[in-house]
Amino acid sequence: MTDVRNRELAEVTRADDFVVSNKLVSLMLAQASENEFMAAIFAELLDEDGSEIYMRPMSDYVAIDRPVNFFTIALAALRRGEIAIGHRRQREDDADTRNLGGVTVNPSRSVPIQYCPDDMVIVLARD
Predict the structure, then answer these.
(1) Using an 8 Å Cβ cutoff, are 84 and 77 in contact?
(2) pTM of the entire structure?
(3) Rounded distance, CA 115 to CA 68, Å?
(4) In 3D, which of 105, 109, 108, 110 has the Cα closest to residue 120?
(5) Which of 9, 48, 69, 96 has the fewest CB atoms within 10 Å, i.e. is most exposed?
(6) How far apart (Å, rounded) are the C-alpha atoms in residues 84 and 72?
(7) Which of 45, 115, 44, 55 is closest to 86 using CA atoms?
(8) CA-closest candidate to residue 89, choices 112, 61, 117, 63
C-alpha cells in the first residue's frame, strides 16, 4: 500500500498482509542511521537472494516429548544455519485476544514449554 491514508481500508477488511511502504521505509532508515548493523540486517532480509521467514515443524528442531526452553530451540536452529525468532502454538483453550494465531515473536528463552506435533518454529533461513 503506497498511501498511508488508505490504511484504514485494510483495517476494515481485516487484511493482515499489507505494508504501508513509506512508513516502513522511514522506520527502517531511522533504525539504520542509528545503528550501522541494522543496515546489514535489512539488506539481508530485503534482498531477493537473502533470508526469508519460514514456519517449520518444531519436531524438526527439538524433541517434543518433554518441555524445552526457547534457548534450546534457538541453538538447534543456529546449528542448521538459521535464526529462530519465535514460535506458533495455537491451542483451542487459549484466548487469542490479539488475534495473532498463536504466534509469539521473541519468546522468553528460559521458560520451558511443552510443544505438540502441530507447533511450529519461526525462523530466518535461506531455502
Answers:
(1) yes
(2) 0.67
(3) 8
(4) 105
(5) 48
(6) 10
(7) 55
(8) 117
